[in-house]
């Protein structure tokens, strides 16, 4: 596993179950069962930084879904989040009829036994995630529960995190 810099995490520890737990600035903990949503301009950059520092890479849910569907295989959307910690291209979960699901519930199930970070393709405001616009077939809106939201900062100094952070729904 790569070295975790101060700007990303203030500490790294292993629980007795050998599951990765990262203490973040402000006393927040990214742990199994808790989803980390990376939202806004620059989210991809933060996703890559986090993936690198936990010894992983950013995984495309869209690519995995396309491969599975091209093979004519039925899949549980949770399977798309296997074998990684940081995911992007969630849009497919909103518009692919074979996958359309309660995305917040899918993320919660996928994070049950490990920390999970996703680059959210929509917005998060007032504790509610949104994708698309009301009236559209792919519109999604849901109140969050126990989720950490990271928002990239345009300007940051080397000794501070390149994001702001909030715990939603706790």
Give a quick rundown of the structure:
The chain is an alpha/beta fold and 170 residues long. The chain has helices at 43-53, 61-70, 92-95, 103-110, and strands at residues 11-14, 20-23, 29-30, 35-39, 58-60, 86-88, 116-120, 123-125, 128-131, 140-143, 147-152, 163-168.
Main sheet overview = 6 strands, mixed
Q: Would you tell me the structural class of the helices and strands?
A: alpha/beta
SSE order, as H and E?
EEEEHEHEHHEEEEEE
Q: What spatial order of strands do you see in the largest sheet? A: 5-6-7-4-11-12
Give the count of helical stretches: 4
Strand content: 25-35%
Q: Low-confidence runs (pLDDT<50, min 5 residues)?
A: 1-20
Molecular shape = globular
The proportion of residues forming helix, as a percent range, comes to 10-25%
Instruction: Compute the CA-based radius of gyration.
Output: 16 Å
Secondary structure: number of strands: 12
User: Gap between N and C termini, in Å?
Assistant: 30 Å
Features:
170 residues; alpha/beta; six-stranded mixed β-sheet; 19% helix; globular
Structure explained in plain terms:
The chain has 170 residues and is of the alpha/beta class. The protein has one domain. 19% of the residues lie in helices and 29% in strands. The chain is built from four helices and twelve strands. Strands 5-6-7-4-11-12 form a six-stranded mixed beta sheet. A three-stranded antiparallel beta sheet has the order 1-2-3, with no helix packed on it. A hairpin with a 5-residue loop joins strand 1 and strand 2 (20-23). The longest helix has 11 residues, at 43-53. It is globular and about 50 Å long. It starts with 10 loop residues before the first strand and ends with a strand.
């Amino acid at each position: 596993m790569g070295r975790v810099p101060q700007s990303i995490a203030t500490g790294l520890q292993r629980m007795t179950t050998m599951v990765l737990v990262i203490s973040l600035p402000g006393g927040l903990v990214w742990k199994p069962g808790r989803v980390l949503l990376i939202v806004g301009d620059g989210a991809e950059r933060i996703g890559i930084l986090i993936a690198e520092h936990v010894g992983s890479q950013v995984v495309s849910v869209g690519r995995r879904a396309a491969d599975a569907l091209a093979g004519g295989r039925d899949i549980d959307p949770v399977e798309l989040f296997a074998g990684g910690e940081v995911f992007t291209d969630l849009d497919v979960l909103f518009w692919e009829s074979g996958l359309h699901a309660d995305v917040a519930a899918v993320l919660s199930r996928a994070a049950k036994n490990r920390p999970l970070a996703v680059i959210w393709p929509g917005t998060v405001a007032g504790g509610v995630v949104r994708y698309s616009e009301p009236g559209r077939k792919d519109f999604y809106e849901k109140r969050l529960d126990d989720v950490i939201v990271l928002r990239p900062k345009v300007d940051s100094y080397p000794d501070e995190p390149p994001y702001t952070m909030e715990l939603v729904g706790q």
